[in-house]
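To whoever picks this up:

The parser on our side crashed when reading a file containing two proteins. I've narrowed it down to the boundary between the first structure block and the second sequence. Both blocks are reproduced below exactly, byte for byte. First block:
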Amino acid sequence: MRAEVDRFRRGAALAALLGEWSTGPGPLYRKLADALSRVAEEGALEVGERLPSERELARSLAVSRSTVVAAYDELRARDVLDRRRGSGTRVNGRNRGPRGDGRVRGGQGTAIFQRLIDGPGPAISLACAADEAAVEVGQVMREVVAKDLDELLSEPGYHPHGLPALRQAIAERYTRFGLPTTADEVLVTTGAHQALGLLSQVYLRPGATVVTESPSWSPCLDIFREAGVSLVAVPLDEEGIDPNGLAAALAEHEPALLYVMPSFHNPAGVLMSSARRRAVAELASRHGVAVVEDNAYAGQNLSPTASLPAPLGAYAEAGSETLTLESFKGIWGGLRIGWIRGPVGIIERCARRKALADLGSPVFEQAVAARLVPRMEEIGERQVVSRRQQCALLERLLADRLAGWTWRRPDGGSSLWVRLPDGASADVFAQLALRHGVEVIPGSTMDPSGAHDDHLRIPFARPRREVEELVDRLALAWTELRRHGPREETPIRPIV
């Protein structure tokens, strides 16, 4: 029975379901009760599921214990929760709504996906690190309409493997980078996220193990969790995943997959060196484990002179299985085109699953992508100046307003991976930040073990005024946490 799984022993896991629960008028305990009631009615809380203790949830939400006690009392009065001696507070299901409401359930990436579904709210959300489209996207769309549209419309439009012109362009790009590739070794997907989902279906069975970096990106980790696997985390250093830790993890756990982000790791911004890529490839080959390298951020260099090493697959031994994922995230996230580069047999297995899912990605977008692929490096180089300016602005504002917050300047990507001082909990700070109008994604959601609780990912790819307002709000929330701690509240209860 799933209800017996103690999903919410850590209050932070429940907090991720609640969204912007503390905004708006009214006492905190009533807003908390309303938010818990809503997620119970929507089915995001299972019938019989145990909620965190009052003390644990109060710590995670940065409120007083009396606020949580009052909220739980309110929900028992509404017949949403039951209190059972010896088994805690549980959802009773008597007010549960129908399933199929469409709300994202479970997983550490819940808040990130739900923010995309809900759309912009009053808070500044740090859930999404994406910028507006590169100017070339609009230019190429107009080119496709002018030059390619009649040809595209003259055929049925179903390409489960991907538009041939796009697959060929991707293959030629990898060949130029030192990874000889044919079009048969490329599958076009609807973004890198779908690519990872397809590979998960091919490689993973319940009870298997995936080795990943610590930290990693929570929506990707959720794909693995959905497959029922165990996650083993290996720390990063300034060159990428630690080779000694990786060797130990591969030897001990015999994983089905190794998942890494070599080119501008999300969220740490680390670029894996050529020497480290070679070491990782050799270790994977020695232990017979397939490697998935997710290079969705490969075009987001922050150095005007640094060149990217060849993809990890270029260092792999003959017969090794290395799958390379990439997308147009750095050019425009709205161009939902990604791809897998890998052995033909694996590509075919993924293609069959993609055909069952959607019969192929949209043809017009693929035609746009086919014209953009040869220009990806040129576009990335042009964007370096603006990205460096955005990063420098956020660094300067944080240094001015938030003394003690530290970070390593990223090699690339679109965010700073910031550490809070004195072991402060990012889970707790996220709740206070929400009351000051900022939705923060705590570092604990980006680590398979729940570590990095003292870290935040702060995207810098946003307009200057928004960055200034963001840092002002973070500074106010930080001051409140340091001076006053969790907010105290004495609920007013009528006497009848």
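<<boundary where parser fails>>
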Amino acid sequence: MSRRKRRGRPVAILDARHHQAITLLAEGRLSYGEIADNIGIDRRTLHRWRMRKDFDRELRKVLARNEREWRRTMQSRLRLRTAHDMTWFFDAVGTV
């Protein structure tokens, strides 16, 4: 059995710019162009990063962590014990 060499570019390790992009993408407030400008890369580079499996895996981890944190906070906040809790809830939901 012969082993085949993998062709193509070697996979690079995610650096600080990648992690900064992941954080900004997970927040969901900025567009791709704004995120790229903040990091100092081209928008197309950000699109190429999104196609990488390791980048996508890290982004999914951050999104899952944010969701768990949001659920934990919501469970404690939804008890609505004080007027401050009620104000926070209605501000978060977007009513009143």
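After patching the parser it read the second block fine. The mean pLDDT is 85. The two ends are 70 Å apart (CA to CA).
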